[in-house]
Design brief:
The chain is an alpha+beta fold. It is built from 3 helices and 8 strands, in the order βαββββαββαβ. It has helices spanning 12-17, 60-68, 97-111; strands at residues 2-4, 24-29, 35-40, 43-45, 50-56, 72-80, 83-94, 121-134. The chain is globular and about 40 Å long. The model has no long low-confidence stretch (mean pLDDT 95).
C-alpha cells in the first residue's frame, strides 16, 4: 500500500533504499504536457531534500527542465520488487563546475563507479517537495 513519506522524518528503510544501487526513472513534461520518461541514476540528499541527476547538456530531459523553468515539475522513481519510492519536486538545470563535481561524487558513491567522462555534463537538481512509497518502509 502506498503512503506519503514525511520528508522531515523519513523512515530509515526509505533512506536506505535511496542509498542502494537501483536504476531509476526521471519523468519530465514536454511542451504539450505529455510525460517523457527515461532511465537515469539518481542520488538523494535527505538533509537538503535534493535529488540529483547527471546528464548531458543536449539531452531532452535537460531541455524539458529548461523549458519549464523556473517551475519545472518532475518526478524520479525507483522500483525493486515490491519496494518502490517516488520523489517529486521542482527541477533546475545547474552548470556550475563545483555542483557538477559534487553530483558526480554522489553518483560514484551510490553506484560504486565513477560516471563516464562527459565535458557537456550538467546536473538536474530537484527540490523535493513530496515523496511516496509503499508500506514496506514502515518501521
Amino acid at each position: 500500500m502506498a503512503k506519503r513519506i514525511d520528508l522531515a522524518d523519513p523512515d530509515r528503510a526509505f533512506l536506505d533504499f535511496w542509498r542502494e544501487r537501483h536504476l531509476c526513472t526521471l519523468t519530465t513534461l514536454r511542451a504539450d504536457g505529455t510525460p517523457h520518461v527515461v532511465p537515469v541514476g539518481v542520488t538523494y540528499d535527505a538533509a537538503s531534500r535534493t535529488a540529483r541527476v547527471i546528464t548531458g547538456r543536449g539531452t531532452r530531459k535537460a531541455a524539458h527542465v529548461l523549458a519549464g523553468a523556473p517551475t519545472a515539475r518532475v518526478a524520479v522513481c525507483q522500483v525493486d520488487g515490491r519496494r518502490w519510492a517516488t520523489l517529486e519536486g521542482t527541477a533546475t538545470v545547474r552548470t556550475e563546475p563545483e555542483r557538477v563535481a559534487d553530483a558526480e561524487r554522489r553518483y560514484a558513491e551510490r553506484y560504486t563507479r565513477a560516471p563516464r567522462p562527459n565535458p557537456e555534463r550538467i546536473v538536474i537538481e530537484i527540490e523535493v517537495t513530496r515523496a511516496t512509497g509503499n508500506a514496506v518502509f514502515d518501521d
